[in-house]
Every structure is written in C-alpha cells, then in structure tokens.
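Table S2 (text version). Query chain:
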Amino acid sequence: MNIPSLLGLLAAGFGASFLVLDISRIAAHRYWPVADGTMAGRFRPLPVFLALFAGPALFAGAMWRMRMSGTLSLLETVLAGAIASGWACCYGLVVAQGAGLLFPGVQLSFGQ
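Corresponding structure-token output:
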C-alpha cells in the first residue's frame, strides 16, 4: 500500500460515511436520535444503522466539537484522528472492493 492509495481509501471511507450521514439526516429528520431519557430501554434501529454505516463521520464530528469546546487535549485529538482515519480506511477498502465488483473493468491496486 502506498500513500496515494491510502489517501484514496481515506477519501472513499470518509466520503461514503458522510454521504450516508447526510442522506440519513435528510430522509429521517423526524426520527433523528436525540440524547434524552424518554426512549431509554427501547430499541431504535436508526441509531444502530448510523453507528454501523456513518461511524467515522459521527466520530469525526464529535471529535471536532469536543476539540473546539476545549474538552480534548492535543494528544487526545491526534489519537482520535488516527482512530477515525483507520476506521475510514476500513470503510474505504470496502467501498473500493464494492466498486471493483460492480465495475469489473476497473483495476484496483493497493500495492501488493
């Protein structure tokens, strides 16, 4: 794996994650999860869906808000950024492999 392929995986992972997050925010605005105790103990599928498919975007957004409010130190921000980037790389690999399956003529190389 080389630097351009790593950057491509990061872009694909964060792009897919933010795309799912924005589409979900528009489509399910009425059912958007809120942090209150009224739904405690009840299963709601939207937060589970968001955690699975928009995790890096949610994590990066929360990290950004906490950094701007001053609750994260610089070291914690760097570590959280590395975790979010690794998570996005995993998603990017899934997106790239899915694109390779959908479009068989496209050659994907990750520096074997």
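Notes on Table S2: The chain has one domain: 3-30+44-102. The radius of gyration is 17 Å.
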